[in-house]
Amino acid sequence: MRNIVILISGRGSNMQVIAQRAQQQKWACRIAAVISSRADAEGLAFAASHQIPTAVVASKDYPTRDAFDAALQTTIDGFSPDLIVLAGFMRILTARFVDHYRDRMLNIHPSLLPSFPGLSTHRQALAAGVKLHGATVHFVTTELDHGPIVAQAAVPVLDSDTEQSLAERVLQQEHLIYPLAVRWFIDGRLSLLDGLVRLAPESS
Ligand code: GAR
Fold first, then answer.
1. pTM recorded for the entire structure
2. Where are the residues marked Raises pKa of active site His as a site (predicted)?
3. Contact assessment for residue 70 and residue 63, using Cβ atoms and an 8 Å cutoff
4. Residues enclosing ligand 1, CB less than 6 A?
5. Which of 35, 106, 107, 108 to mutate to test the pocket of ligand 1 (most atoms within 8 A of CB)?
6. CA 163, CA 6: separation in Å to the nearest integer?
7. Could you give the CA distance from residue 203 to residue 130 in angstroms, rounded to a whole number?
8. d(C-alpha 175, C-alpha 49), whole Å
9. CA 203 to ligand 1 centroid distance, Å
10. DSSP state, 75?
C-alpha cells in the first residue's frame, strides 16, 4: 500500500477529489496525511471528517524558508510518503526540499504551462488574449512551475470571461486531470525519459 501525503494551503478542492476518487475506486494507496501551511485552511476540516490524519506546519511560525521547509520535511517524512501531492500549496519550496522528493512530488498549476507560471494565471491569460487556457499537472523541479508535464486540460476563453468564471472552468478540469495523474503514479505507469514523462499502457 503506497502512502500519499497531500499539501494544501486553503480550500483543498483538489485534495478532496483525489481523496474521494482514491476511496471510490479503491486505489492501492492510502492518503496518509493532509498537511497545511495555514492553520485556517478550509480543507483541513474535510480531511479530519474523513479520518485522514492532518497536520499544520504554519509558514508564519518560521523565520526563513529553510527553517519552514526543514520542519515541513520532518512532518511529511513521519508519514513515510511514496508520493507528495501539492494541491493549492502556495509556498515556494527550497531546492533542498525539492531534491529530497525528486520524481515523487506532483503539482497542479492553473495554466497551460509553460505559459503563465507564477501567480494570477487567469488574469495573465485574459491580459494576453489567449483563446485557450487550462491546467497542468507536472513533476516538481527546482525551477518554479517548470517540471516535466504529466497531464494537461484545455478550456476555451470566452470574450465574456472574468477571472472568476475562467478560474471556475479551469478548476473543473483540474478535478479531472489531477486524480487521473495521481492514479497513474500510484499504478506505476509514469516514467521519465530524457526529462519527459512517459505513460505506460494500462495493464489488463
Ligand atoms: C487551484 O486552482 C490550483 O491549481 C492552484 O490553486 C488552486 C487551489 O485550489 N494552485 C496554484 O496556483 C499553485 N501555484 P484548491 O485548494 O481548491 O485545490
1. 0.97
2. 145
3. no
4. 8, 10-14, 87-88, 108-110, 171, 174
5. 108
6. 26
7. 38
8. 20
9. 31
10. H
Q: Rounded to 5, what percent of the chain is helix, strand, coil?
A: 35, 25, 40
- Write the residue with the smallest CA distance to atom 8 of ligand 1: 88
**Residues 33, 95, 72: CA angle, nearest 5 degrees:** 25
Divide the 204 residues of the chain into consecutive groups of 10 and give the mean pLDDT of each group. 96 98 96 97 98 96 96 98 97 96 98 98 98 98 96 98 98 98 97 94 85
Cell numbers describing residue 200: 505506460
Give the strands of the sheet with 54-56, arranged side by side.
54-56, 29-36, 2-8, 83-86, 105-109, 132-139, 149-156
